């Protein structure tokens, strides 16, 4: 399924170049004098495409009222689907929320225009660990929206981990029933971290070591499956799983209802990925879009969003306003030191095509077992 | 006399039915579960149905879904029936290539279909730019996209329904003085009707649960139920979606019973002829 999609995408990008260049000249010709599209209620319209359930609906309403605008919120299920829809040119959106490793792909496809976030009055609220990221030096295109560190989750009522380490999964024990995320970068990244390497390693020897470790790991009796967040949460609740690799946000949503659910960031370090706000080329209403980004960067608004989604918050002004439950969770906010030292490390786009192939082969090899 | 079924065979049948229907049953039961993350039973509640009814996005998506399904089914049934009839009635050297074209939308992956339609609409829009007239992807683009794959299903069911009939039936009607319109309305169409209805039902269902093609052709701000549900799977499906699915299952069951009642030959009619 995904392979067909990517193939189609490749074809599409060929035809898309032509289209985008044309919209470019059109935009220059008319300049900023083009009136914003007017809709039913006479106000202006902002179109956003983002992950589902990823913003507090009250926050959206507040913005609509404040700006006398209407916000159209569409959702996507994977970065690839979003890219395909944008490249096809059937829909005009102002803002999107791609994951950090997808930014360069979108820049190369000429889908983004500079957001110039530094000019926004609330930009100063972004924490130092999230500024100037290597997927977007100088924050030209992106503003960090929410992030997800990856941790190990368990049900405290049924299982007590002997240490907060990846060892419980990658070590010699064979009794723990565990699952891994259904995502090559997360799984290979975890193995690399356990071995003391970078999650973005392109070193063949290191990757070989990680592959051997993972082969041993998935052939253990305790290995249950490759599964995503909601599934892991349900299996932990049902007690068919002891330990699961999971995005911290996915687990915390459940922990708010059942305090027995717990999650930790392994001591050897772990992976982290940010979802960003980007301004799309051909955005019908860039001024309103920038206003929205600035609105989201406001401490109170940003805190409200995290209190709704339970995902990590890069906003320093929001920190004291977060739900006490979230603040009490160590895994919710990796320390700035861990971020700077690279212990908690961003998943980046892989540089050379060769490395991508290596990751691909390791993953196929694991899934085939 | 009924023949006795071998017990192993009926046990196997029960297993197959269980495999097909147990998941749906579980879903229905869990739509009454008082827990936000439905892995464990936390007591009986009907609150999710209330939550569901209060959701404006769900109501809007439901309206969109039904509007698209009804209108695209209507168009594709008319067009598909004509294609099916034509294929049955005329034998030209284009019959084979035509059949091939009809089968293509059935076997082609949804993703390819969705993306190519998206590109097609972009091209059309590009062409229209010169005339100063333009359109946005939304209801119409989704509706026509659905028609493109529905036609094949309708045409093929109609054609296979007619396959067994002798073409001289129509000639006989003409010989007896029926005009071409009369022979079509009084002879051919009644013969094809069960096929037409079956094709229409199939087309309706296909439109109702299509995600991929709808996702790509819908532009911004136009959402159908499958798109709403599928894009929320990543974050875990909330119980109000279980409630929605339960209602849809209920709706489908009623529709099937109704269709059966309509299509069943009425006793006595056959004797009159």
Describe this structure in words.
- The complex is a heterodimer of chains A (369) and B (273).
- With 369 residues, chain A is an alpha/beta fold.
- Helix content of chain A is 41%, strand content 17%.
- Chain A contains 14 helices and eleven strands.
- Chain A has helices at residues 2-30, 57-67, 79-88, 103-108, 167-170, 184-194, 204-218, 229-238, 248-255, 286-297, 299-309, 324-327, 336-341, 353-367; strands spanning 44-51, 69-76, 95-96, 112-113, 142-155, 178-180, 223-226, 243-247, 261-264, 270-280, 344-346.
- In chain A, helix 2 (57-67) links the parallel strand 1 (44-51) and strand 2 (69-76).
- In chain A, helix 1 (2-30) crosses helix 3, helix 6 (184-194) packs across helix 7 (204-218) and helix 7 (204-218) packs parallel to helix 14.
- The longest helix of chain A has 29 residues, at 2-30.
- Mean pLDDT of chain A is 84; it is low at 14-42.
- Chain B has 273 residues and is mainly alpha-helical.
- Chain B contains twelve helices and no strands.
- Chain B has helices at residues 7-30, 47-54, 56-89, 95-107, 110-129, 139-162, 168-175, 180-208, 212-217, 225-232, 239-263, 269-272.
- The A-B interface holds A 1, 4-5, 8-9, 12, 15, 19, 22, 47, 49, 51-54, 72, 74-78, 81, 84-85, 88-93, 228-230, 233-235, 237-238, 250, 253-254, 257-258 and B 35-40, 109, 111-112, 115, 118-119, 121-122, 125-126, 136-137, 141, 215-221, 223, 227-228, 230-237.
